[in-house]
Every structure is written in C-alpha cells, then in structure tokens.
Amino acid sequence: MSGTWLTTRAWLLMLPLLIVMVAVIGWPLADTVQLSFTDAKLVGTSGSYVGFDNYVRLVSGNAFGRTLFTTTFFAVVVVTVEMLFGVLAALLLNQRFHGRTLLRALLILPWALPTVVNATLWRLIYNPEYGALNAALTQIGILDNYRSWLGEPGTALTALIVADCWKNFPLVAMIALAALQAVPRDVIAASYVDGASAFSRFRFVTLPYLAGPLMVALVLRTIEAFKVFDIIWVMTRGGPANSTRTMSILVYQEAFSFQRAGSGASLALIVTLIITVLAVAYGTVVKKVAGSAA
Amino acid sequence: MERQSPLFRLFLHAAALLLAAIILTPLLWLFVMSISPAADLAAKPLRWWPATMDFSRYATLLSSVENSAGAAFMASLRNSLMVAGMATVAAVALAVPAGWAVSRTPSVGWSLSVVIATYMLPPVALAVPLYMALAKFGLLNSVFGLALVYLTILAPFTTWLMKSGFDGIPREIEQAAVIDGASLWQTLRIITLPLAMPVVATSALFAFLLGWDEFFYALLFTSDQRAKTLTVAIADLAGGRVSDYGLIATAGVLAALPPVLVGLVMQRALISGLTSGGVKG
Q1: CATH top-level class for B56-280?
Q2: Using the 8-state DSSP alphabet, how is residue B266 labeled?
Q3: Could B213 and A13 be called an inter-chain contact, meaning their C-beta atoms sit closer than 8 Å?
Q4: A269 at B interface, C-beta within 8 A
C-alpha cells in the first residue's frame, strides 16, 4: 500500500469529524470575526461594517480593564491554591496509612460533582440568613452577626475562589498522585541508600517525575480558570457592584443581555486571543519541562 | 523501605482526617439540607442534624404531577439525558474512525492538534453565531440543537482519548490480520474494535459527564421545559424565589448522583484516561 493511499484513507476516515467541526466550530469562529467588525444586534439587524470601532471602544472603556484584572486575579489565585493543595494532598495520599484507599476514592467526589451543583451548594452555605457558614462562625464565636458573604464586594470574590478551589484541587491531586506512583521504587530505594535528605529526595527524585504532568495540569487549569463562567453566574452573576465579573460574564452581558452581537463578538475574540497566547506560551514551557524531565 | 516514626504516623493520620473533613463536610451538608425539615434549616441557631429525617422532597421531585416542581425537574432530567446521550453517541461515532486514522497515519497527526486546539476555545467565541444559526433553523430551545452544539466540546475531547487508546493497541496485530487476507474493514471489526472497547466505553462516559455538566450553552439556547437541562433547572432554583432551600439541595443531590456514582465505580479508568490524555497531549 502506498503512502498516498494511506494518507487519503486517513482523510476519508476523518471526513465526518472534520465536516462537523467546520460546521459547529470553524464557521461560527469565522462568523464571530466578521461580526466583531460590525454593529450587529443579536436579533434583527445584521449591522454594518464599523472597522475596529468595537475594539477601540471596549478596550478604552472602564469595564474592560477592571474585568480583565478580576479575571486574572481569580485565575492566578485559584490555580496557585489548587496546585499547592493538590500536590500536598497527592504527597499525603502517596504515603502509607490506614484508610488510604478510601481517602483516594473520596478525592473523586468534588471533581465529579457537576459545576452548577457545586456553585449551588456553596451559594446555600454562604446564604446571608440561613447559611451554614454564618451559623458555624457565630456558634463558635468568631462572628457576632450574620454576614452576606456573596452580597458584599469585599468578600464575594474570595468566597467564589474558595468554592472553585474546593471543587478543582482534587483534579490536580489525582494527576499528581498518578505521577508519584510512576516513580520507580528502586530509584527511591537508591536515594535512601545514598542517604539523601527528605528535601533532596523530593527535589531530585520525585519532582522530575511530577514536573511534566503538573505542567499539563497547570495549563489546563489556567485556561479553564480564565474562561470561568458557570460558577460565577450561579453564585453572583458577576455582582455585587461587578466585583466578581469575569471576561466570560462580560461577553455574556454585552452579547446577550444588551444584545450587542457585534461588540460582544469583539470582546469574545479578545478573550480567545488572551487564551491562545497563554496556551502557546505554556506549550513552549511544557515541551521544555517534559524534555528536561525525561 | 522507609520506617515511619510514631510522630510521623500521627501526623499522617491527622492530615488524612483533615483532608477527609475538607472533602466531605460540604457534601454531607448538601445531603443533610435535603433531608432536613424546612423549619430546621431556617432555625437560629441552625440545627445541624434534623430531629426527624424528611425524604419527602425526593418524592416531590421524582413525581410527575402536572405543573409541580417535580414535573419541571423530571422534564429537565429527561432533557439532560437526551442531550448528553445524543451528543455522546454522535461524538463517539465521529471519534472512532478519526482517532484510528490519526493513530495509524502519522502524516495527518497535525490535524488532531488543530482539533484539540479548538477544545481550548472559550465557548463565548462561538456563542453568538451559534445562537443566530440555531434561531434561523428553528433549533433554539430544542434538545437536538443543543446536542449538536455540545459536539463542539465532546467531539474534540473523545477524538483525543480515542487516538491515545488506539495508540495502545499494537498495529502488528492488524498487520498480521491483513497478511492473513482480511480486508481493512474485517480487521477493524474483528480485531481492533473489540480490543478498543474499553477505551470507547471510557471515552463515552467522559463525554456523557461533560454533556451532563454543561451549563453555558444550555443557559443560552434553552428557555422552557421542552429543552432546559438539569444544570439550568438547578441554577433557576438557586437564583429564584424558592423558599425551601432543602428542595434546591435535593435537586443538587439528584443531579450529582449519576456522575458521582460513575466516578466512584470507574475511578481507575477515569484517572488513567485523565493522565494518559493529559501527559501525551
């Protein structure tokens, strides 16, 4: 069988997938680009060409900078906490103790919980009148009066970050644990024989095996965190006073609440651009880390 | 190997208990809310465990008396099953041939990178044209339209998993069958697909969970009981004027049950899928 025929056959087998992908992803993406240069409304007028007006107006408006900051802050904090906590949990679960198998099984629960259910659960916990957090803190004596955790700009974002970290640190922990279990036992044994300290064992024996998978987890979680919509929509809808409004929420408001399809599309493309830059930058680092670890 | 000192063992067990408490407390509270009488949940100081367990909300939600909370819940449950189910079947049907082709033909491997790259796209980048197109074809507020949109997420993901899966099946087995005179189609049907069934099953489960979990597109493209999915129904409950928080918690428990059970039963397969997909990508 010749190489050309093999390649043709491969394309034929991929054809159904490619057709669907072009229809549901390729074409809409191209259409978003086209829309972003118009003043189209979501319903009715298809709009006329306005050049880069949407982009200029959005970037110079005051909502954009603030929202970009909120999103970046959210992403940096949740990813940092999840990575730290995930690796700590994995290191713990890699040790021998009673109930380890059960605890490893429990780890999957927050991850499996649907995002919307997680958001609803924490919304109930933070409830200003009947929430468990208020009740617990007042009963212990830490808090004098019930507070509106999601209703005050000072606490809403932190409350969201806690809820997101609780759901997502197990993913990092599972990836890290799988990597830890891949460290060959004789290598660890050799490090003991050589009298390595606990720190240098971690730094020089374990970490090289962890680095690659952790980088992948870091990339996936950062991109997810930057795109965040569901948990915020269900818990605060971006409020109070826009203190938890992220880029995806802003796009939703622009395109669907205010029905400005054109400028919504511009905003969506700016978000896409930022994520692409992040993905490419990370991709380069991942290749480096994976290369040096192997 | 390492001998654990008594102090270190104590520390390990304390840390394990702390981790278990962190994971379980919110989940247990969700369940307790679902079985506590409304009065207990509104009591000050809050009752942490109900005097009498009240399972009536489960019966309320799982009944289909017309115009009740149950009817809306059951409709959204059915919609979620249909949308996630249809999208999963379609995604796997597309992913199996494509995944095999990429796995066996390195020269087209770059096309998979393009497909995977689309998985990183934020849904907001596609939402406006998809909304307009669905409106034009009368597919807004339709389970079929939503299932089609879910392919944007499910198809790249399953193709990626299937490609990794086929990579694990030695091509020598296929070549041996071809030498014995089997046609390509026979080889795939008799040799490769049966060997790939575990991967197909894992990919399908992953895809179904992704569909079950999806919220953004469902929020945008559905508006009533004909197509609203469970995630949208729960968000409606949480954001609405429902006075009984226990009912919201019950809906949450019911929606969480399928993925949580799948997660617990399939833990090993899920984790190996996560890591193989993650590491090789």
Answers
A1: mainly alpha
A2: T
A3: no
A4: yes
Per-residue pLDDT tens over the stretch A241-289: 999 999 999 999 999 999 999 999 999 999 999 999 988 888 787 777 7
Which member of A20, A125, A129 has the closest CB to residue B29?
A125
Residue A252's domain is classified under what CATH number? 1.10.3720.10
Q: Looking at the predicted structure, is the pLDDT value of residue A102 above 90?
A: yes
Is B260–A112 a contact, with Cβ atoms under 8 angstroms apart? yes
pTM for the model: 0.91
Decide if A103 and B128 are in contact by the 8 Å CB cutoff. no
Nearest to A213 by CA among B230, B277, B247, B105: B277
Express each pLDDT in A184-209 by its tens digit.
Answer: 888 888 888 888 888 888 888 888 88
Whether A12 maps to a domain, the answer reads no
CB nearest B97 (choices: A13, A124, A185): A13
- Cis before B45 (ω within 30): yes
CA A254/CA A85 separation, integer angstroms: 36
Q: Boundaries of CATH 1.10.3720.10 in chain B?
A: 56-280
- Given this model, what pLDDT does residue A293 score? 52
Q: B215 contacts in A (CB within 8 Å)?
A: 115-116, 229-230, 233-234
Lowest mean pLDDT among A9-13, A84-88, A130-134, B111-115: B111-115
Structural domain contains residue A89: yes
- Residue A244: name the closest of A172, A146, A130, A164 by CA: A164
**Collapsed DSSP state (helix, strand, coil) of residue A38:** strand
**Tally of domains within chain A:** 1
Q: Is the minimum CB–CB distance between A223 and chain B shorter than 8 Å?
A: yes
